[in-house]
Design a protein that fits this description.
The structure holds two protein chains of two kinds.
Chain A (H helix, E strand, L loop, with lengths): L5 H16 L3 H17 L6 H20 L3 H32 L5 H7 L7 H17 L4 H7 L3 H14 L12 H4 L13 H26 L12 H32 L17 H7 L2 H15 L5 H19 L4 H24 L7 H20 L3 H13 L7 H29 L5 H4 L2 H14 L13
Helix pairs in contact in A: 1-2, 2-8, 3-4, 3-6, 3-7, 3-8, 4-5, 4-6, 7-8, 10-11, 10-18, 10-20, 11-16, 11-17, 11-18, 13-14, 14-15, 15-16
Chain B lengths: L1 H21 L10 H15 L7 E5 L15 E5 L5 H10 L6 E5 L9 H8 L1 H9 L9 H13 L25 H11 L5 H20 L3 E5 L5 H4 L2 H13 L6 E2 L18 H18 L2
Parallel strand pairs in B: 1-2, 1-3, 3-4, 4-5
Helix pairs in contact in B: 3-8
Chain lengths: ~475, ~290
């Protein structure tokens, strides 16, 4: 069910009305959870059983972690919980990759593995399950321990966990929510607690980025596909590459803002997932601004447990590369995603090495640093659009060997629309960068906010592209 | 802030509607294929008057290349590039007024209906919003209008008019396929015969639509777009051809006699080039006058 569909608006309206018709926390949790199950099962009802199984496993394991008296038992259940979540993720997501890579075309095992369906949102809800189990083990989230102490605690605990894992605004494409951030927020919600203006801003910007920017750009970046790009000029290839980087940001940041806005309507605060990533002047800064929920998850639950930067230089770089390669592979069950992760890992490693060696690695103006980071990031995103590594290499070759310019109207129009639909994202980033750099408050311009938001709403109504799945649904 | 923003939105819609009134009528606002398909569909749904005297063509990108200026003015082309005849039939079904005849392209019968297209056109709120607020229709998208104005200003043309040179025959033209890569891909796909399930699913759907059209008193005519003779002999087109005559026998249904194929040239094995499209449209017109009552 897309956030831009009539069925979503109908479900949202009905759920919201029922949610606030009662003031009882238990009923509100049940309404939101049931709506989440409807949301997930809308297109593939049979996959709801997987979500329910994941919820049941995480409830059971996290409760056992809290209920076990011996540290060894607690650790054993925690490890079991993490492995169970990784096992579900690995089986459903990576079986086709294993089947294609290690088994021949005539292998029955290979055929079986390739045929396993990829449930939507699996990368997100399994990670949230891991967060629950680990936070319970470390004591960061005391919900399971509290439920154990109360006689009727398990029922309420189970209901809360079901909501945490299945909560529909962030169920299928994030932001990845950590247990210790979400569970304390579960209490009775009231209409008066809704921060209407913040929700409105998030929803309008989110839908604008998604429907006006991303959905329109996708019709231009369509031509990045093989074999169409082979006959494009260098100028067009570069423009489309830039356009795809803008599109992927608008699509994902737009979805995240919509998720945050919708969650706000139900009284839940989710963290920002993007913080103007394209103003970054270093790769480490980029990863503090891009898909923040994933990068903080990987840092907290993978990089730091591996030792982080506390075990010497060699181990630090190894931990960094492991985290980035696995983070890349999380994005998709294809080796090109591992390559993408490795690519970013190498960039981070080189940057770290340069910083450690020279202290101030880049003696170039921030604008050029930012442009350099953007170019490297944009080239990396091409692996999302061209998962076949051969096609990726071919595209890069064409950028150096194709004619510089082809004077036909079709090319001109593709470049025109790519640039025009990218303008809002450029303005969005430039305004923030300017404000940060000059420490301005823009108080005067803030008075014009109704005009900006009113116009964004107008363009959503009058100039939306055709709806397709959000790019990150494939992960 | 929220109320003020909503007021600005309302004012923008009203102002934009007024601006559209003073802009040239025939602006080319097409941005890309999907957008163009939606524009065509919405023009039929909201703007085409007196549908009862219209003849509607449904099909795919093959018959989307027909030169409509060469057909009488009561012909409407609801053939959509990248889509199938079922999308056109669905639109005819959804509009309460019905045309007098429907011409069905046989080539694309195996391609199913595009659900996203149906959702885009008929989603409840947006369907009625666009019906009563023309400024929200696809052809009036601000960026498309901006493009149309720039095209006019700069004197560019993204839809060059092809003047048919009727004295030339295919033998005068270079025989080579323009896009050999696309032709090679087509040869691979057309060599694979459709499964029984595929055929039954497609023809069961088509039979439902044809039955409904006939019950509404609408004449149904089948026609085939000429494709490269090498492809025409392959398993897939042959299976489609055979199934058509099995499901819709010649004695009960009207077919346009196919032209001699060797006189047409395609860009990729299936899509007629501009000159051939013009030539075939002229042929189609003659055949319709002879065949259709």
């Amino acid at each position: 069910m897309l956030f831009t569909s009539f069925s979503f608006f109908a479900l949202l309206t009905l759920t919201w009305a029922l949610y606030y018709a009662t003031r009882k926390k238990a009923v509100q949790v049940a309404v939101a959870t049931l709506a989440s199950f409807v949301f997930y099962a809308w297109n593939f009802p049979f996959l709801l059983s997987l979500l329910l199984a994941s919820i049941a496993i995480n409830i059971g394991v996290s409760y056992r972690v809290a209920a076990s008296s011996s540290p060894a038992a607690r650790r054993a259940y925690a490890v079991l919980g993490v492995l169970a979540n990784l096992g579900i993720l690995g089986f459903f997501k990576y079986s086709p990759l294993i089947g294609r890579t290690f088994f021949g075309a005539d292998s029955s095992v290979g055929d079986f593995l390739v045929a396993i369906p990829l449930p939507i949102g699996i990368s997100f809800f399994t990670f949230q399950g891991i967060s629950l189990v680990v936070d319970t083990f470390t004591g960061k989230d005391p919900s399971a321990a509290q439920a154990k102490e109360q006689n009727t605690g398990l029922k309420h605990y189970a209901a809360n966990i079901a909501l945490f894992i299945a909560f529909f605004p962030q169920l299928i494409a994030g932001p990845i929510v950590k247990a210790h951030e979400f569970l304390p927020q579960i209490r009775a919600k009231h209409l008066r607690d809704i921060q209407w203006e913040i929700c409105f801003r998030n929803l309008v910007i989110g839908y604008f980025l998604k429907m006006f920017v991303a959905d329109n750009l996708k019709d231009q970046t369509f031509w990045i596909q093989y074999p169409y790009f082979e006959s494009s000029s260098v100028v067009e290839l570069v423009t489309l590459l830039y356009g795809y980087a803008i599109q992927i940001f608008a699509d994902f940041a737009g979805y995240s803002l919509i998720a945050i806005g919708v969650a706000g309507l139900f009284g839940y605060q989710l963290r920002d997932n993007f913080l103007f990533p394209y103003i970054s002047t270093s790769f480490s800064e980029f990863w503090r601004r891009w898909h923040i929920s994933l990068s903080t998850f990987l840092r907290e639950y993978l990089y730091i447990p591996l030792g982080g930067n506390r075990r010497g230089n060699v181990r630090t770089y190894a931990n960094l590369m492991t985290t980035m390669v696995l983070g890349g592979l999380w994005h998709g069950a294809a080796w090109s995603y591992a390559v993408w992760g490795f690519y970013h890992g190498v960039a981070l490693a080189i940057e770290r090495l340069a910083w450690d060696t020279f202290r101030s690695p880049f003696r170039v103006p921030p604008f050029l640093q930012g442009a350099g980071v953007f170019v490297v990031v944009a080239v990396g995103f091409l692996l999302f659009k061209l998962p076949s590594f051969d096609h990726f290499i071919r595209y890069m070759q064409c950028m150096f060997t194709n004619p510089l310019w082809l004077a036909d109207t079709g090319t001109l129009l593709r470049i025109f629309f790519t640039l025009v639909y990218s303008i809002p994202v450029i303005v969005y980033h430039a305004a923030y960068a300017y404000q940060e750099h000059y420490s301005l408050s823009f108080a005067g311009l803030r008075r014009l906010d109704p005009i900006y938001y009113g116009l964004m709403l107008f363009f959503i109504l009058a100039n939306s592209g055709s709806s397709i799945d959000f790019i990150y649904f494939q992960f | 802030m929220v109320k003020k923003s909503l007021l600005v939105t309302l004012a923008s819609v009203l102002l934009y509607s007024m601006v559209l009134e003073i802009l040239p009528d025939k602006l080319n606002t097409k941005q890309h294929l999907w957008n163009y398909n939606v524009i065509k569909a919405q023009q039929y749904l909201y703007e085409t008057d007196d549908v009862s005297h219209r003849n509607v063509i449904v099909g795919s990108s093959l018959s989307a290349r027909l030169v409509m200026d060469s057909l009488p003015s009561n012909y409407v082309n609801l053939a959509f590039g990248g889509q199938s005849l079922f999308d056109g039939l669905r639109i005819i079904e959804r509009r309460s007024e019905k045309p007098q005849a429907v011409f069905i392209e046989m080539n694309s019968v195996l391609r199913g209906q595009n659900e996203s297209f149906e959702e885009t056109l008929f989603s409840p709120v947006s369907f009625y919003a666009r019906k009563y607020i023309p400024s929200l229709r696809e052809r009036n998208q601000p960026m498309g209008v901006l493009k149309g104005l720039l095209i006019n200003l700069l004197g560019l043309d993204d839809q060059p008019v092809v003047v048919p040179d009727t004295e030339k025959t295919a033998e005068d033209l270079q025989p080579d396929i323009i896009n050999p890569q696309a032709f090679a891909v087509k040869k691979e796909t057309e060599a694979i015969a459709p499964t029984d399930e595929e055929l039954h699913r497609a023809f069961d759907d088509l039979k439902c639509y044809v039955q409904a059209l006939k019950q509404a008193g609408i004449q149904v005519v089948f026609f085939e777009m000429p494709i490269d003779t090498t492809l025409q002999r392959m398993a897939r087109p042959q299976a489609v051809h055979t199934q058509f005559f099995a499901e819709f026998p010649l004695v009960d249904y009207t077919y346009i006699t196919p032209p001699p194929r060797a006189t047409y040239r395609t860009t990729d094995g299936v899509h007629l080039d501009a000159l051939s499209a013009s030539r075939f449209t002229a042929y189609l017109r003659e055949e319709i006058e002879l065949t259709v009552q």
